[in-house]
Amino acid sequence: MTIFNLGSINADHVYRVPHLPGPGETLAATSMQTGLGGKGANMSVAAARAGSHVAHIGAIGSDGIWARNRLLEYGVDTRHIAELDVPTGHAIINVDDAGENAITLFAGANQAISEDSVANVLSTGSTGDILVTQNETNAQSVAAKVGSKLGFRVCYAAAPFDAGAVKVVLPYLDFLILNAVEAKQLEQALGVSIEELDVADIIITLGSDGARWISEGVDQHFAAIKVDPVDTTGAGDTFTGYVLAGLDRGLTMGQSISLAMRAAALMVMRMGTADVIPDLKEVEAFSGI
């Protein structure tokens, strides 16, 4: 089977700082590195490193050829990444000594993806394939509609959170992943509880408290593996990629979440994003510290 990912591709510029800067504050960084990122790219790398065939649908500028090549190196099918006359997206990421981050995004080519090309790529898939998208590209609603019509398992990772964007794709979703703050915001926007949503599977990530899986007749908590965090950037994307890859490989939801918990725990102990996502062998061998 194939995981199709309509997802962002960014150059991540990561700055290590003693604390996250406040309004008007000029702060000296202690280190800086640039690597592959974007919620979409992170999820594609995670799912590919977890053993799935991942076809990434996205766009870069001429300044982003290296990013497409890096995705290919990590095992992602990059044939559907267009090169456009628009700058590649990028992120400015500040990470403090506690591992917390503050991120500024520039969308660039991520918001210039051809809707027709998205539909055409998805038409090559098969019933039972997985489609995932996030709120860092355009064409999300088109992808969700087409994926649902074709019998895909349609997943939405609701970040960066926007209630309006979730509302548009909600009728087509089989699987929704969001964090606790986003879950509360969605409940307020819709006027219903998360448990009442007509979505087959919902995962609410809880950071250091683990995750919650809500399905018909199921409301199960999964404890996080306790580790000493270095950088939380990309941990949620790694979790999502590993959950989807687990389902694609025939694991149960519970088994997929447990595997993804280990992957996310490994991820927060590393500085960086897509370039440091652990592979399946590492994750299976990891039991925590």
UniProtKB/TrEMBL annotation:
<comment type="pathway">
    <text>Carbohydrate metabolism; D-ribose degradation; D-ribose 5-phosphate from beta-D-ribopyranose: step 2/2.</text>
</comment>
<dbReference type="GO" id="GO:0005737">
    <property type="term" value="C:cytoplasm"/>
</dbReference>
<feature type="binding site">
    <location>
        <position position="270"/>
    </location>
    <ligand>
        <name>K(+)</name>
    </ligand>
</feature>
<feature type="active site" description="Proton acceptor">
    <location>
        <position position="237"/>
    </location>
</feature>
<dbReference type="InterPro" id="IPR002139">
    <property type="entry name" value="Ribo/fructo_kinase"/>
</dbReference>
<feature type="binding site">
    <location>
        <position position="237"/>
    </location>
    <ligand>
        <name>substrate</name>
    </ligand>
</feature>
<feature type="binding site">
    <location>
        <begin position="10"/>
        <end position="12"/>
    </location>
    <ligand>
        <name>substrate</name>
    </ligand>
</feature>
<feature type="binding site">
    <location>
        <position position="233"/>
    </location>
    <ligand>
        <name>K(+)</name>
    </ligand>
</feature>
<comment type="similarity">
    <text>Belongs to the carbohydrate kinase PfkB family. Ribokinase subfamily.</text>
</comment>
<feature type="binding site">
    <location>
        <position position="179"/>
    </location>
    <ligand>
        <name>ATP</name>
    </ligand>
</feature>
<feature type="binding site">
    <location>
        <position position="267"/>
    </location>
    <ligand>
        <name>K(+)</name>
    </ligand>
</feature>
<keyword id="KW-0460">Magnesium</keyword>
<feature type="binding site">
    <location>
        <begin position="38"/>
        <end position="42"/>
    </location>
    <ligand>
        <name>substrate</name>
    </ligand>
</feature>
<feature type="binding site">
    <location>
        <begin position="205"/>
        <end position="210"/>
    </location>
    <ligand>
        <name>ATP</name>
    </ligand>
</feature>
<keyword id="KW-0963">Cytoplasm</keyword>
<feature type="binding site">
    <location>
        <position position="272"/>
    </location>
    <ligand>
        <name>K(+)</name>
    </ligand>
</feature>
<feature type="binding site">
    <location>
        <position position="231"/>
    </location>
    <ligand>
        <name>K(+)</name>
    </ligand>
</feature>
<keyword id="KW-0808">Transferase</keyword>
<protein>
    <recommendedName>
        <fullName>Ribokinase</fullName>
        <ecNumber>2.7.1.15</ecNumber>
    </recommendedName>
</protein>
<keyword id="KW-0067">ATP-binding</keyword>
<dbReference type="InterPro" id="IPR029056">
    <property type="entry name" value="Ribokinase-like"/>
</dbReference>
<dbReference type="GO" id="GO:0005524">
    <property type="term" value="F:ATP binding"/>
</dbReference>
<dbReference type="Pfam" id="PF00294">
    <property type="entry name" value="PfkB"/>
</dbReference>
<dbReference type="GO" id="GO:0019303">
    <property type="term" value="P:D-ribose catabolic process"/>
</dbReference>
<comment type="subunit">
    <text>Homodimer.</text>
</comment>
<dbReference type="InterPro" id="IPR011877">
    <property type="entry name" value="Ribokinase"/>
</dbReference>
<dbReference type="GO" id="GO:0004747">
    <property type="term" value="F:ribokinase activity"/>
</dbReference>
<comment type="function">
    <text>Catalyzes the phosphorylation of ribose at O-5 in a reaction requiring ATP and magnesium. The resulting D-ribose-5-phosphate can then be used either for sythesis of nucleotides, histidine, and tryptophan, or as a component of the pentose phosphate pathway.</text>
</comment>
<keyword id="KW-0630">Potassium</keyword>
<keyword id="KW-0418">Kinase</keyword>
<feature type="domain" description="Carbohydrate kinase PfkB">
    <location>
        <begin position="6"/>
        <end position="278"/>
    </location>
</feature>
<keyword id="KW-0479">Metal-binding</keyword>
<feature type="binding site">
    <location>
        <position position="136"/>
    </location>
    <ligand>
        <name>substrate</name>
    </ligand>
</feature>
<keyword id="KW-0547">Nucleotide-binding</keyword>
<dbReference type="InterPro" id="IPR011611">
    <property type="entry name" value="PfkB_dom"/>
</dbReference>
<keyword id="KW-0119">Carbohydrate metabolism</keyword>
<feature type="binding site">
    <location>
        <begin position="236"/>
        <end position="237"/>
    </location>
    <ligand>
        <name>ATP</name>
    </ligand>
</feature>
<dbReference type="GO" id="GO:0046872">
    <property type="term" value="F:metal ion binding"/>
</dbReference>
